[in-house]
Amino acid sequence: MGSTLMKPVYVWEIPVRIFHWVNAACIVALCATGYLIGDPPALMSSQEAYQGYWFGTVRFLHFGTAYLFTFNLIYRIFWGFVGNKYARLAGFFPSTKEKLDELVCVVKLDILQMVCKPVESIGHNAMAALTYLVLFLVSFFQIATGFGLLSAMSGSVLSASFAWVPALLGGDMAARNLHHFTAWFFVLFAVVHVYLVCYHDYVEGRGVLSSIVGGWKFIVVKGGK
Q: Start and end of every Cytochrome b561 bacterial/Ni-hydrogenase domain (predicted)?
């Protein structure tokens, strides 16, 4: 009678795990402060406006977090060239027939709930990798529009580098609206991401959820008597 064994594989290195959690914290902070900036509540107070300055604090947290978000993304791109094979940027592109077939299979399993052979990718499956690639591109767009808008009131080198972006998009108001609407992509991504991670962790039992904390996943090894 055959038996099924699980073999541990070290997948996510410490730099990848650090990026993940810093990125998650930044997205939460940026979405929360960005929402307040876009639709600030009217707070009743007997203080003079200059004594409260709560909105200035919100803006400071948003801009400060934006710098951390930017440099964290640059750090992840760097690690995409020097990290292990599961961290490499090349893995985010479905450039082979095998990856394309896997992409179709994941769509059938996760979205259409159709019967398909199990997807046993050790790192990101093809759909997850493509989704993260889109996430990176959207992140760059948010960085460009965010610092472009900041350039009108900041003399920093980073913001000045994107001063041309609002004009390209049709002005500050257009850039602000695009920056705001695009932020909802992160909210949608977070909901789907958490659901699918928990789903695959439960269905596959290969440590998907815990791997982003400890770095280890498990692969099925069939054998025995």
A: 11-215
